[in-house]
Specification:
CATH topology: Rossmann fold
Shape: globular
CATH architecture: 3-Layer(aba) Sandwich
Distance between the termini: 29 Å
Helix content: 40-55%
Number of helices: 8
CATH class: Alpha Beta
Length: 156
């Protein structure tokens, strides 16, 4: 029902996602979900990452740029992959209580303006000569507005 509400713009992205996360993950043992997320990150992400996107990440790293993945997806299923590349990750955090996932966010969904807030908490943007940003969804537009060079759907 929440997907339908989101599709018709009756409920926002964050609320719809919260309901889906609660439905699927509330009550999961946090360690078990982290293990499953790590397995996904290491086995599945390398298969689905667009080759041109990976080449661009590698170019930025070879140029000595600081690189971060900024995603609305839960960090729990991206972090192992971003760690293998040695890049920062800013994503949605899941709340834990007594070793279990509650299905709620720990903080806010890393989407839209929250991406900007989180980036500014992690990086002092004034210290960079040039900022690049890549996005592929409407929720990335506020983040793209931070960049000197912004690319929307560059790797689609």
């Amino acid at each position: 029902m929440h997907i339908v509400g989101y599709s018709f713009k009756l409920i926002d992205n964050s609320r719809a996602k919260q309901h889906i996360l609660t439905y699927f993950f509330a009550g999961w043992n946090a360690t078990a979900l982290k293990d499953l997320g790590q397995k996904y990150a290491l086995e599945r992400i390398p298969q689905i990452i667009r080759p041109e996107a990976l080449k661009r990440i590698q170019w930025h790293l070879s140029e000595g740029h600081e690189v971060a993945i900024v995603s609305a997806s839960p960090e729990i299923w991206i972090s192992a992959w971003s760690n293998t590349l040695g890049i920062k990750l800013i994503g949605t955090l899941l709340e834990e209580n007594e070793g279990n996932i509650t299905g709620k966010y720990n903080g806010l969904n890393c989407h839209g303006e929250e991406k900007v807030s989180r980036i500014k908490r992690v990086f002092n943007l004034e210290k960079y000569d040039r900022i690049y940003a890549y996005g592929d969804s409407p929720g990335d537009q506020p983040m793209l507005s931070l960049a000197d060079e912004a690319y929307s759907r560059q790797f689609s």
